[in-house]
Amino acid sequence: MHELSVPLQIKRFDTRRHAEEKGISIEMAARELRYQWFRSFTEGSEDRKVVAVAHNADDQVETLLLNLSMGTGIRGLSGMPFIKQAEGIIRPLQATPRALILDYLSTLGQSYREDSSNSDTRYKRNLIRHQLIPLFEELNPSFRETTYRMIEHLRSTEALYMETIERYRSELLSPNGLDYKPLATHPERTTILFELLRPYGFQRPVVEELSKHLAEGRLEQSSTPPPTYSSMVYSCWSYSHVRREQQYPYPLTSAKTGSAHFPSEENYTGSSFPLVL
Predict the structure, then answer these.
(1) 249-272 as b/e: b if 16+ CB within 10 A
(2) Which of 117, 120, 158, 132 is CA-nearest to residue 66?
(3) From CA 274, how far away is CA 277, in angstroms rounded?
(4) pLDDT at residue 89 is higher than 70
(5) What is the DSSP string of 213-260?
(6) pLDDT for 223-251, tens place per residue?
(7) Maximum separation of any 2 CA atoms in the chain, in Å
Protein backbone atom coordinates (compact mmCIF):
# COMPACT_ATOMS: atom_id res chain seq x y z
CA MET A 1 0.00 0.00 0.00
CA HIS A 2 3.02 2.30 -0.23
CA GLU A 3 1.77 3.67 -3.59
CA LEU A 4 -1.37 5.03 -1.92
CA SER A 5 0.37 6.08 1.31
CA VAL A 6 -2.06 3.93 3.30
CA PRO A 7 -0.52 2.31 6.40
CA LEU A 8 -0.87 -1.47 6.57
CA GLN A 9 -1.43 -3.13 9.93
CA ILE A 10 -1.36 -6.90 10.35
CA LYS A 11 -2.65 -8.83 13.36
CA ARG A 12 -2.31 -12.58 13.86
CA PHE A 13 -4.53 -14.66 16.14
CA ASP A 14 -4.63 -18.23 17.37
CA THR A 15 -8.13 -18.67 15.98
CA ARG A 16 -8.32 -22.41 16.49
CA ARG A 17 -7.49 -22.15 20.19
CA HIS A 18 -10.02 -19.35 20.66
CA ALA A 19 -12.68 -21.50 18.97
CA GLU A 20 -11.89 -24.47 21.21
CA GLU A 21 -11.91 -22.35 24.38
CA LYS A 22 -15.24 -20.74 23.52
CA GLY A 23 -16.82 -23.86 21.99
CA ILE A 24 -17.63 -22.06 18.74
CA SER A 25 -16.85 -22.54 15.06
CA ILE A 26 -13.65 -21.35 13.42
CA GLU A 27 -15.70 -18.82 11.43
CA MET A 28 -17.31 -17.35 14.54
CA ALA A 29 -14.00 -17.31 16.42
CA ALA A 30 -12.30 -15.45 13.58
CA ARG A 31 -15.13 -12.93 13.51
CA GLU A 32 -14.98 -12.33 17.27
CA LEU A 33 -11.21 -11.82 17.23
CA ARG A 34 -11.39 -9.57 14.17
CA TYR A 35 -14.01 -7.27 15.64
CA GLN A 36 -12.28 -7.15 19.02
CA TRP A 37 -9.23 -5.84 17.21
CA PHE A 38 -11.30 -3.36 15.21
CA ARG A 39 -12.75 -1.98 18.46
CA SER A 40 -9.23 -1.19 19.65
CA PHE A 41 -9.08 1.45 16.90
CA THR A 42 -12.33 3.16 17.88
CA GLU A 43 -12.72 2.82 21.66
CA GLY A 44 -11.74 5.93 23.55
CA SER A 45 -11.33 7.88 20.35
CA GLU A 46 -12.23 11.57 20.71
CA ASP A 47 -12.57 12.21 16.97
CA ARG A 48 -15.24 9.48 16.42
CA LYS A 49 -13.13 7.11 14.36
CA VAL A 50 -14.85 4.32 12.47
CA VAL A 51 -13.59 1.15 10.82
CA ALA A 52 -14.77 0.52 7.25
CA VAL A 53 -15.13 -3.16 6.40
CA ALA A 54 -15.42 -4.52 2.88
CA HIS A 55 -18.73 -6.44 2.98
CA ASN A 56 -20.53 -6.14 -0.34
CA ALA A 57 -23.97 -7.01 -1.76
CA ASP A 58 -22.98 -10.63 -2.38
CA ASP A 59 -22.02 -10.95 1.30
CA GLN A 60 -25.50 -9.74 2.20
CA VAL A 61 -27.10 -12.49 0.10
CA GLU A 62 -24.82 -15.10 1.64
CA THR A 63 -25.65 -13.84 5.14
CA LEU A 64 -29.38 -14.13 4.45
CA LEU A 65 -29.02 -17.73 3.25
CA LEU A 66 -26.71 -18.61 6.14
CA ASN A 67 -29.19 -17.23 8.68
CA LEU A 68 -32.08 -19.03 6.99
CA SER A 69 -30.21 -22.32 7.17
CA MET A 70 -29.82 -21.99 10.94
CA GLY A 71 -33.20 -20.43 11.72
CA THR A 72 -33.72 -16.74 12.18
CA GLY A 73 -36.16 -13.91 12.76
CA ILE A 74 -36.73 -10.58 11.05
CA ARG A 75 -33.27 -9.32 12.03
CA GLY A 76 -31.53 -12.23 10.36
CA LEU A 77 -33.53 -11.69 7.20
CA SER A 78 -32.50 -8.04 7.05
CA GLY A 79 -28.82 -8.71 6.45
CA MET A 80 -25.96 -6.76 7.95
CA PRO A 81 -26.60 -3.12 8.88
CA PHE A 82 -24.77 -0.38 6.98
CA ILE A 83 -23.51 1.05 10.25
CA LYS A 84 -23.03 -0.39 13.72
CA GLN A 85 -22.63 2.80 15.69
CA ALA A 86 -21.86 1.16 19.04
CA GLU A 87 -18.97 -0.77 17.51
CA GLY A 88 -17.80 1.98 15.17
CA ILE A 89 -18.27 -0.20 12.07
CA ILE A 90 -19.44 0.97 8.63
CA ARG A 91 -19.94 -0.99 5.40
CA PRO A 92 -19.59 1.49 2.50
CA LEU A 93 -19.60 -1.25 -0.18
CA GLN A 94 -22.65 -3.04 1.18
CA ALA A 95 -24.85 -2.24 -1.84
CA THR A 96 -22.13 -2.94 -4.44
CA PRO A 97 -21.99 -6.38 -6.12
CA ARG A 98 -18.70 -8.26 -5.91
CA ALA A 99 -18.52 -8.53 -9.71
CA LEU A 100 -18.65 -4.74 -10.05
CA ILE A 101 -15.83 -4.32 -7.52
CA LEU A 102 -13.66 -6.81 -9.39
CA ASP A 103 -14.46 -5.12 -12.70
CA TYR A 104 -13.42 -1.75 -11.26
CA LEU A 105 -10.12 -3.18 -9.99
CA SER A 106 -9.50 -4.71 -13.43
CA THR A 107 -10.12 -1.33 -15.09
CA LEU A 108 -7.55 0.26 -12.78
CA GLY A 109 -5.10 -2.56 -13.33
CA GLN A 110 -5.05 -2.93 -9.56
CA SER A 111 -3.97 -6.29 -8.16
CA TYR A 112 -5.54 -7.64 -4.98
CA ARG A 113 -5.19 -10.54 -2.59
CA GLU A 114 -7.86 -13.06 -1.68
CA ASP A 115 -7.87 -15.17 1.45
CA SER A 116 -6.98 -18.72 0.46
CA SER A 117 -9.66 -20.07 2.81
CA ASN A 118 -12.38 -18.42 0.70
CA SER A 119 -12.43 -21.46 -1.58
CA ASP A 120 -12.70 -23.99 1.25
CA THR A 121 -16.27 -25.31 1.22
CA ARG A 122 -15.86 -26.87 4.65
CA TYR A 123 -16.88 -23.42 5.88
CA LYS A 124 -20.60 -22.73 5.66
CA ARG A 125 -20.39 -19.35 3.95
CA ASN A 126 -18.09 -20.72 1.27
CA LEU A 127 -20.40 -23.67 0.69
CA ILE A 128 -23.25 -21.21 0.14
CA ARG A 129 -21.11 -19.00 -2.14
CA HIS A 130 -19.66 -21.72 -4.35
CA GLN A 131 -22.38 -24.36 -4.41
CA LEU A 132 -25.77 -23.13 -3.20
CA ILE A 133 -25.98 -19.74 -4.94
CA PRO A 134 -25.01 -21.16 -8.37
CA LEU A 135 -27.91 -23.60 -8.02
CA PHE A 136 -30.30 -20.74 -7.28
CA GLU A 137 -28.92 -18.89 -10.31
CA GLU A 138 -29.94 -21.84 -12.46
CA LEU A 139 -33.50 -21.13 -11.34
CA ASN A 140 -33.12 -17.36 -11.59
CA PRO A 141 -30.05 -15.84 -13.30
CA SER A 142 -30.77 -12.59 -11.40
CA PHE A 143 -30.93 -14.36 -8.05
CA ARG A 144 -28.29 -12.17 -6.35
CA GLU A 145 -29.88 -8.93 -7.49
CA THR A 146 -33.43 -9.93 -6.62
CA THR A 147 -32.39 -11.33 -3.25
CA TYR A 148 -30.54 -8.13 -2.39
CA ARG A 149 -33.68 -6.12 -3.26
CA MET A 150 -35.67 -8.43 -1.00
CA ILE A 151 -33.22 -7.76 1.83
CA GLU A 152 -33.78 -4.03 1.37
CA HIS A 153 -37.56 -4.56 1.57
CA LEU A 154 -37.14 -6.71 4.68
CA ARG A 155 -34.99 -4.03 6.28
CA SER A 156 -37.87 -1.59 5.85
CA THR A 157 -40.19 -4.18 7.34
CA GLU A 158 -37.86 -4.59 10.30
CA ALA A 159 -37.89 -0.83 10.87
CA LEU A 160 -41.69 -0.83 11.03
CA TYR A 161 -41.63 -3.90 13.27
CA MET A 162 -39.20 -2.29 15.71
CA GLU A 163 -41.23 0.92 15.70
CA THR A 164 -44.19 -1.11 16.94
CA ILE A 165 -42.09 -2.91 19.54
CA GLU A 166 -40.74 0.39 20.85
CA ARG A 167 -44.31 1.64 21.22
CA TYR A 168 -45.14 -1.39 23.38
CA ARG A 169 -41.89 -0.90 25.30
CA SER A 170 -42.81 2.69 26.15
CA GLU A 171 -46.38 1.71 27.09
CA LEU A 172 -45.69 -1.44 29.12
CA LEU A 173 -42.20 -1.04 30.56
CA SER A 174 -41.54 1.52 33.26
CA PRO A 175 -39.31 1.93 36.32
CA ASN A 176 -42.06 0.06 38.19
CA GLY A 177 -41.75 -2.99 35.96
CA LEU A 178 -43.62 -4.68 33.11
CA ASP A 179 -47.37 -4.34 32.88
CA TYR A 180 -48.11 -7.65 31.20
CA LYS A 181 -51.91 -7.76 31.62
CA PRO A 182 -52.72 -5.91 28.35
CA LEU A 183 -50.91 -8.69 26.48
CA ALA A 184 -52.92 -11.56 27.96
CA THR A 185 -55.35 -11.68 25.03
CA HIS A 186 -53.10 -10.22 22.35
CA PRO A 187 -52.72 -12.65 19.41
CA GLU A 188 -48.99 -11.84 19.13
CA ARG A 189 -48.22 -11.63 22.83
CA THR A 190 -45.34 -14.13 22.54
CA THR A 191 -43.46 -12.02 20.00
CA ILE A 192 -44.04 -8.82 21.96
CA LEU A 193 -42.97 -10.42 25.24
CA PHE A 194 -39.87 -11.86 23.58
CA GLU A 195 -38.78 -8.49 22.24
CA LEU A 196 -39.37 -6.84 25.62
CA LEU A 197 -37.56 -9.56 27.59
CA ARG A 198 -34.80 -10.42 25.11
CA PRO A 199 -32.43 -7.61 26.26
CA TYR A 200 -32.45 -9.22 29.72
CA GLY A 201 -31.28 -12.63 28.51
CA PHE A 202 -34.60 -14.42 28.04
CA GLN A 203 -34.58 -16.95 25.21
CA ARG A 204 -37.54 -17.67 22.95
CA PRO A 205 -38.53 -21.06 24.50
CA VAL A 206 -38.74 -19.49 27.97
CA VAL A 207 -40.89 -16.64 26.69
CA GLU A 208 -43.17 -19.08 24.86
CA GLU A 209 -43.81 -20.87 28.16
CA LEU A 210 -44.49 -17.59 29.96
CA SER A 211 -46.83 -16.48 27.17
CA LYS A 212 -48.75 -19.74 27.38
CA HIS A 213 -49.23 -19.44 31.13
CA LEU A 214 -50.16 -15.77 30.82
CA ALA A 215 -52.89 -16.62 28.29
CA GLU A 216 -54.19 -19.38 30.58
CA GLY A 217 -54.19 -17.07 33.60
CA ARG A 218 -51.66 -19.22 35.42
CA LEU A 219 -49.29 -16.36 36.23
CA GLU A 220 -51.86 -15.05 38.71
CA GLN A 221 -52.62 -18.33 40.49
CA SER A 222 -51.12 -18.37 43.96
CA SER A 223 -52.11 -21.64 45.60
CA THR A 224 -52.23 -24.64 43.28
CA PRO A 225 -49.13 -25.54 41.29
CA PRO A 226 -49.85 -26.06 37.59
CA PRO A 227 -48.91 -29.28 35.77
CA THR A 228 -45.31 -30.20 35.06
CA TYR A 229 -43.55 -27.79 32.69
CA SER A 230 -40.41 -28.05 30.60
CA SER A 231 -36.93 -27.94 32.14
CA MET A 232 -36.71 -24.25 31.22
CA VAL A 233 -39.88 -23.14 32.98
CA TYR A 234 -40.53 -25.74 35.66
CA SER A 235 -42.85 -23.74 37.91
CA CYS A 236 -44.80 -20.55 37.60
CA TRP A 237 -47.09 -19.87 40.54
CA SER A 238 -47.08 -18.12 43.94
CA TYR A 239 -43.38 -18.52 44.73
CA SER A 240 -41.51 -20.07 41.85
CA HIS A 241 -38.48 -19.92 39.60
CA VAL A 242 -37.73 -19.72 35.93
CA ARG A 243 -34.69 -21.56 34.61
CA ARG A 244 -33.07 -21.47 31.21
CA GLU A 245 -31.75 -24.91 30.25
CA GLN A 246 -31.23 -25.61 33.99
CA GLN A 247 -28.80 -22.72 34.23
CA TYR A 248 -29.07 -19.14 35.45
CA PRO A 249 -32.03 -19.24 37.91
CA TYR A 250 -34.57 -16.46 37.47
CA PRO A 251 -36.59 -15.94 40.69
CA LEU A 252 -40.25 -15.38 39.79
CA THR A 253 -42.16 -14.12 42.81
CA SER A 254 -45.89 -13.41 42.67
CA ALA A 255 -47.06 -10.34 44.53
CA LYS A 256 -50.36 -10.20 42.58
CA THR A 257 -49.38 -6.80 41.31
CA GLY A 258 -49.60 -7.52 37.61
CA SER A 259 -46.08 -6.18 37.18
CA ALA A 260 -42.69 -7.70 36.50
CA HIS A 261 -39.68 -5.83 37.89
CA PHE A 262 -36.39 -5.89 36.01
CA PRO A 263 -32.82 -4.84 36.72
CA SER A 264 -31.44 -2.33 34.29
CA GLU A 265 -29.84 -3.68 31.13
CA GLU A 266 -26.58 -2.03 32.16
CA ASN A 267 -26.49 -3.96 35.44
CA TYR A 268 -27.70 -7.28 34.03
CA THR A 269 -24.91 -9.87 34.07
CA GLY A 270 -26.78 -12.80 32.58
CA SER A 271 -26.41 -14.90 35.75
CA SER A 272 -29.67 -14.07 37.53
CA PHE A 273 -32.82 -12.20 36.66
CA PRO A 274 -35.40 -11.32 39.36
CA LEU A 275 -38.89 -11.21 37.87
CA VAL A 276 -41.64 -10.09 40.26
CA LEU A 277 -45.25 -10.51 39.17
Answers:
(1) ebebebeeeebbebeeeeeeeeee
(2) 132
(3) 10
(4) yes
(5) HHHTTGGG--SS--S---SSS---STEEEEEETTEEEEEEE--SSSEE
(6) 333 333 333 333 332 223 333 333 333 33
(7) 78
